[in-house]
Each structure stands twice: as structure tokens, then as C-alpha cells.
Amino acid sequence: MLVLVAGCGSGAADPPAKAGRSASAQASARPKPPARPAAKPLPAGQRALLAKEARAMYGAASGGAVPAFDRRRTAIVGMGDSEMSGEGIGDYTPSTDRPSDECHRSPASLIDRTGARVDTAVNLACSGAASADVRAGGDAQYADQPAQADQLAVQARLTRVTAVAVLVGANDLDYGEVMADCVTRRLRLGRPCAKTYGPGWGDRVSGAMTRVRGAVGSIREVMRDAGYREADYRLVLMSYPSPLGPGTGGKGLGCLAYPSDGRWARDTAVPALARGLRAVAGETGAGFLDLKGLFDGHEACSPAPWVRGLQLDLGAGKNAVAGSFHPNAAGHGVMGQCLGAFLHGGRATAVCTANGVSVRLGPA
């Protein structure tokens, strides 16, 4: 803030002029932010969908037209896989909980629980999604679920998106299958899984990050094509909290992991993935929110878990273990608090930890 103090009372003299440019000249010389780019036209199918959504959001009188950028409803958007969609909560939007669409989006997912001051939270994430399912132009994950960045292209023109949060990468390295294998090794009298996966884990993460980088870059391009400057919104790449810890070998069929495997997951596998995601965030100019230690003391099978253990539903076919090792409703609530604090605080990178049900951001 620039404060100018003039002389007061009768007879106050004007201060002597100083050499150099005036304040107004200096202000006019400051670099102006780049002009907002014009939005590129959408393909016919997406244009029709945008018009339909505009009538629903802004009323029939809009004729399917969207208001000017600064007059649109505001939104935050969640993208990625089951960790973002809400898999594991069990309460799913009906249209995403059927054989033809098993994205399993929950109204209690973290993107709906940030406390952000926006008009709406939009969950585009889909269970089972890998980076290719996020990237623009990718194959539809289901008939009614085109690539998430293609859905974002419509949403970014319908609303004024202030933040895009992304949780993706786990399915690029078959993370869920690895965790399920680790937990059941003991039941099958197998050797600890860390000895199987540990030697090649770093290479596995590196390969996955190449695909994640492409997905995040695609989101940037979609937002630019929708008429956004990077300063108009926050793009946040999030890491995953560890579902396992040394105490995951507790009582019950869902708590069978060797303590050494729980320790490997918490202290090696999950931190390696977090480091890879942080590097991608730095390369793409995204913010990075590190959640790797958020569930410490609240892993599967702990006294107060924020993540589900192994869940077996023999009547669910290929989804017999769906929801296993995913955050429960309490876990999503804490993750949502972390994201909300990150968006409010404006840090470029941060680590989020929990103390009870309150969260704290620290330097990453």
C-alpha cells in the first residue's frame, strides 16, 4: 500500500519536489499482467454439452450462453484416481456407481470438504484412472466418462475455476495391487513383499512420473485454451498418504501385513512416490501438497483408522477388493482440510500433517 501524507493546517507548504519519476509515473511503468488469452472454440459435441450445462446453471434465459469470465460462478475441481474420487467412502453418486460407470465419486470426497469459498466443487476423478485417463484426448474410461481433461475443458468455460487439484500416478505403477499383495502375503505364507518390489521400486516410480508429467502438462494446456492465465487459478499436485504402517499386521483378515512390509510402505514406497510427484510439480509449475505422512498413526488397522483395510466382497466380481486401502470418510475430511489450508495459505509447496483432527502445514 502506498500512503501519501499531505501537510495539514493553514500555511502548510508543499514538500519540495524530488528528483526522479513521480509516483504516478512509476505506477504506470509497472509491468501489467499478461492479457487473458481468448478461449479457443470447442468441438461440436463439447459445445453442445457446454450450452446444456449453461442453461442448467445460469437459467433457460441464458440461451446456453455463459457469462463473462468475472461474472461466472466459481469452482474448484478435483481430478485423478480413486484417492480423489472418494473410493472407500461407500456413499457414491448413483450415476457413478453402476456397471457402466464405476468412477465411484462421493459427495463426501476431499474436494467437497476444503472449506474453499467457491460456489461449487466439481469432482472429475474416477476410480481406476491412470495418467492416460486424465490427459486430454485420451480414451473414455467409460462411455459417459471421456478423458478428465476433456471434461475440464467444458467446466473451465462454464465456471471460473480458481483451483484444480490432482491426485494421480498410483495406478500408473499398480500401487493398489502392490498394497493388496503386501497385505495378503502373510496369509499365503509368502515372503515379505518388500523383497519383491523394493529393488525395482525407484525405476517403477520414475517410469510412472513420465506419464504423470504429460497429464499435468495437458491440464495446463486445457486451461490456457479455455482462456485462463496461470495467475487465474491454482494447479495443485498432491501426493498420497501411506495406507499401511508397521502396525498393519493387527487382528482380523484385513490386517495381515508383515510389520516389515507396513514399514516399507510407509518409509520407502510412499515417500519415493511423493518425491517423484514433487519433481513433476516443479517441472510443470504446479503447487505441491505432500500428504505422505498425513495418516501416521491412523493407517489401516490402527485404533482410529483414516483408511480402510482389506475389504473383500465376493459378490462384486472384479471389484471384490475395491475400496481396500483407500481413505474412509474421516480420512477424506482430513485430506480436504489440508487442501483447503494449502489453497488459503498460498504456499508453493507444503507438507501437511495432522494433530488429532486438526491439520498443520509445514515447509516441504
TrEMBL record:
Gene3D superfamilies: SGNH hydrolase. GO terms for biological process: lipid metabolic process. Pfam families: Lipase_GDSL_2. Transmembrane segments: none annotated. One of its GO terms (molecular function) is hydrolase activity, acting on ester bonds. Residues 80-332 form the SGNH hydrolase-type esterase domain. Signal peptide: none annotated. This is SGNH hydrolase-type esterase domain-containing protein. It comes from Mangrovactinospora gilvigrisea.
